[in-house]
Write a structure and sequence with these properties.
The chain contains 23 helices and 10 strands. It is α+β, with helices and mostly antiparallel strands. A 6-stranded mixed β-sheet has the order 6-7-8-9-5-10, with helices on one face. Strands 3-1-2-4 form a 4-stranded mixed β-sheet. α7 crosses α9, α15 packs antiparallel against α18 and α15 runs antiparallel to α20. The longest helix has 19 residues. The protein is globular.
Length: 548
């Protein structure tokens, strides 16, 4: 796919007439006769081509005076995959808007995070998306408001402010303009048995949502990876769901994510409902739900040696994170140690320095410690070698004072350079952070032993230089190629857990030594394998609503 698809009228018309769900989120169809806008896969009878106009965003449709279709609900489409695989200003701005920066800090705050003037940002967003940052944030607020109206019994005044609106009047006007119904009418349209049914009875701040994605999605390595590396107290696998605590702008939360055939069931427990849109955005990012698996897999299939892996289990995603700084810290904790040891190190830090939380529905106890809390600890209390202790203290110190910033808006190449300048950081550690924390879809790990072993077994080059040269044809999706290569090994990260608990409850590898499992490379310098994907040295047996 290419940016600006909405300008290719003939292609858009074909997608609408075929009701192709793969294009949901890529563009929106506005019908000039009804003044309604839809997603490409709308089940209604397609309008005549001469009555269609195409826009790149829901916000652009709303700005042009079109209302959201009540049948296909285009505001719940998966996000455009453009913002995942691009690192330019517009993509970085869209990721920040999705994370709620405009609602919290305004357009000046967005500009400050990106290092550009407000005028430059507005001009580029208008040119590419047909809407400025305020309109894009407004569309997100409207979606959050609809979710709260339809899934909670909260009074409208509380919903207005929880959605990010500055006044009840603005809330009423926006909902009426976007959905052609007042907030009360929107709630009244629900069947009596559904009104408020998705808010857990007796549990304020608990919501059940559906997170849509583009098919196919293979949940095995996605949830298997998260469960096998879960930090006790912060993450767990329970009752078929991956659960973890969330540090959010206005409070904290717990997310429970369960893979279903056509969506991810998401149960959110929030201390402040103003964090709803941010929590949804971070859960989607964690599970890479806005990816375009068809584009990824089609590119990887061009390599005849990768094609059988893709055909066997298409739709693999890259397991990511909800907190970029947390993942960087965990990467350092996992250098040169087993998964079990890395989890032990992290659990000790969580118990000593994490903020405690209540979890009536499970066994989560803490938020992962913030960089400022870790920077204040006594380095001598860390049970790790002196060189890795220096790496750890330097990293958390720079994260705490702002010298190093890792976030959704980070420039991937600049972040790599800054990470490589830190003591104890080699290419493997920098690239695994780029891949899983920063979301770079082209990050590659040619020195990873699991990748090299899989490459050798497939007949691909197994030396880092030769493998990197071969992988040039896989760009810009080399991070996904890593997932397919890792999946050739019978390692716990590649399988859904079979019962409650952490990695001890997942299906364990049945082959070989720990060195023969994914991610257990020993790269140069101190950049050894993080807790992201390493086998323990001695394995032990051990009705909802759509949300964009």
């Amino acid at each position: 796919m290419q940016n600006g698809m909405h300008t290719d009228t003939e292609r858009c018309v074909r997608a609408v007439q075929s009701k192709d769900a793969r294009f949901d989120g890529w563009f929106f169809t506005a019908v000039t006769t009804t003044r309604i806008y839809c997603r490409p896969s709308c089940p209604a009878v397609p309008p005549k081509p001469q009555n269609m106009t195409f826009y790149p965003s829901a916000a652009a449709c709303q700005q042009a005076g079109f209302r959201a279709c009540k049948r296909c609900r285009p505001d719940t489409s998966p996000g455009s995959p453009e913002w995942n695989h691009r690192a330019d200003l517009v993509a970085r701005a869209m990721r920040l808007i999705g994370d709620g920066v405009v609602d919290r800090d305004g357009v000046p705050g967005l500009a400050a995070r990106l290092g550009y003037s407000t005028r430059q940002i507005e001009r580029q967003l208008l040119a590419e998306l047909g809407a400025g940052p305020l309109a894009l944030a407004r569309a997100q607020r409207a979606q959050t408001a609809r979710l709260l109206i339809e899934t909670t019994p909260l009074p409208m005044a509380e919903i207005a402010f929880a959605s990010g609106f500055s006044s009840i009047r603005t809330f009423n006007d926006t909902v009426r303009e976007v959905f052609a119904l007042s907030p009360s009418e929107l709630r009244a349209r629900l069947p009596r048995h559904r009104a408020g049914a998705t808010a857990a009875p007796g549990l304020p701040g608990v919501l059940n949502l559906r997170l849509p994605f583009r098919s196919p999605l293979n949940p095995d390595n996605l949830f298997g990876h998260l469960a096998a590396t879960a930090v006790p107290g912060v993450e767990e696998w329970r009752d078929g769901a991956y659960r973890r605590t969330l540090r959010l702008p206005y409070g904290h939360g717990v997310a429970a994510l369960t893979p279903m055939p056509d969506h991810i069931a998401c149960r959110l427990t929030l201390s402040d409902l103003r964090d709803l849109s941010v929590a949804i955005s971070r859960c989607r990012r964690l599970l890479d739900l806005d990816a375009d698996p068809v584009a990824v897999d089609d590119q990887l299939r061009t390599d005849p040696l990768l094609a059988p892996l893709v055909d066997k289990a298409p739709g693999r995603r890259v397991p990511r994170t909800v907190d970029e700084a947390e993942f960087a810290v965990r990467a350092v904790l996992g250098q040169q140690v087993s998964t079990a040891a890395a989890r032990t190190h992290a659990a000790r830090l969580v118990t000593a320095h994490g903020d405690p939380v209540d979890d009536p529905e499970g066994g989560l106890t803490h938020l992962f410690p913030a960089p400022a809390a870790l920077a204040a600890l006594d380095p001598e209390s860390l049970a790790m070698p002196r060189t890795r202790r220096a790496t750890f203290t330097t990293l958390v110190g720079q994260l705490a004072d702002g010298t190093l910033h890792l976030g959704v808006e980070s420039d991937w190449e600049q972040a790599r350079e800054r990470l490589l300048a830190l003591p104890g950081f080699g290419p493997w550690t920098a690239d695994v952070i780029a891949m899983r924390a920063l979301g770079d879809p082209d990050a590659f790990l040619p020195t990873d032993l699991g990748v090299r072993r899989a490459a050798q077994n497939l007949g691909l080059p197994s030396t880092p230089a030769a493998l990197t040269a071969r992988a040039a044809a896989w760009r810009p999706w080399r991070a996904y190629a890593v997932q397919y290569l890792w999946a050739t090994d019978a390692h716990p990260i590649n399988f859904l857990p079979t019962q409650n608990g952490g990695p001890g409850s997942a299906r364990l590898a049945t082959s070989g030594s720990p060195a023969a499992t994914p991610g257990t490379t020993r790269p140069p310098r101190a950049a050894r394998t993080p807790a992201a994907a390493r086998t323990p040295r001695t394995p032990r047996t051990a009705r909802t609503e759509d949300a964009q």
